Amino acid sequence: MAVGIWTLVDKSDYISLLSSNTYSAAAFILIGSGAVVMLTGILGCCATIREQRGLLRVFFVLLLLIFLLEITAGFLAYVYYQECFPLCYQLNAELRADLKEKMVQNYQQPGQEHITRAIDNLQQDLKCCGSNSSADWREGAWIQISADRRLVPDSCCKTPTVGCGLRDHPSNIYKVEGGCISKLEEFILQHLIILGSVGLGIALIQIAGMIFTCCLYQSLKEEVY
C-alpha cells in the first residue's frame, strides 16, 4: 500500500500528462489490495489470539480470495498484452500525440498551470526536451508569441536560468538526449515493474499466511479432540 501511495504522490505531476490510466490504475490497485490485506491481517490476529476456528476459516477464505483475484488480474493483463501486441504501437502513438499536443497547446497557457509545472518537472527530471525532440517546441503556442523570441522553455536547459531557452545549442539544452516520450515510457515501465514485484511479494506472503492458518487450524482442532 505504501509503494502505491508513494508512486501516486511522488510522481503525480507525470500522471496528469498521460492519456492512459494504466499507470495510476496499477498504483490504485496496489493501494486497495494493501488496505484489504491489512484488514484481513487484523482479523487473522484476532483469530490467533482468541484461538477461534471460525475466525480462522474466514481469514483463510479472505486470503484465498485476495490471492485468486491477484492471480486472475495478472493472467488477464498478460492475455491482454498478448492480444493487443499488434495494436500496442497504436496506443503508443496516441500517447506520443497526446503529450505533444499538451506541450505545444497548453504550456504556459492561462488555467494550465498544473500542465506547465508537470512539463517543466518532466523535462528536468528525465533530462529531455520536447515530446519527440526539442524541435517540437517550434510549434508551441507560447513559443510562437514569445516576445523574446525564445526557442525552448527554460526547463529544457541543462542548467536552468531565466532566459536560457533563447539558445538551443546541444551544450545548453537536452537536444541530443532525445524527447521526453521515450524516457517517460521507460519511467512508467520501471515503476510498473516495481508495482508488479511488490504485488508478487504480497502474493507469496499470502501463501505463507494460508499455510500457517491451516497449521494453526489443525492444531486447534487436535487440542479440542
From TrEMBL:
A Gene Ontology term for the protein's cellular component: plasma membrane
GO process annotations (BP): cell migration
Domain of life of the organism encoding this protein: Eukaryota
Record localization: Cell membrane; Membrane
InterPro entries: Tetraspanin/Peripherin (IPR018499), Tetraspanin_animals (IPR000301), Tetraspanin_EC2_sf (IPR008952)
Membrane topology type: Multi-pass membrane protein
Major localization listed first in the record, in broad terms: membrane
Pfam families, sorted: Tetraspanin
Bilayer-spanning residue ranges: 23-46, 58-81, 192-217
Keywords assigned: Cell membrane, Glycoprotein, Lipoprotein, Membrane, Palmitate, Transmembrane, Transmembrane helix, Ubl conjugation
Family to which the UniProt record says this protein belongs: Belongs to the tetraspanin (TM4SF) family.
PANTHER family, A to Z: CD151 ANTIGEN (PTHR19282:SF487), TETRASPANIN (PTHR19282)
Subunit structure: Interacts with integrins ITGA3:ITGB1, ITGA5:ITGB1, ITGA3:ITGB1 and ITGA6:ITGB4 and with CD9 and CD181. Interacts (via the second extracellular domain) with integrin ITGAV:ITGB3. Interacts with ITGA3; this interaction modulates ITGA3 glycosylation pattern. Interacts with F11R. Interacts with RAC1 and CDC42; these interactions mediate physical association of RAC1 and CDC42 with integrin adhesion receptor complexes.
Record's protein name: Tetraspanin
Gene designation: LOC113066521
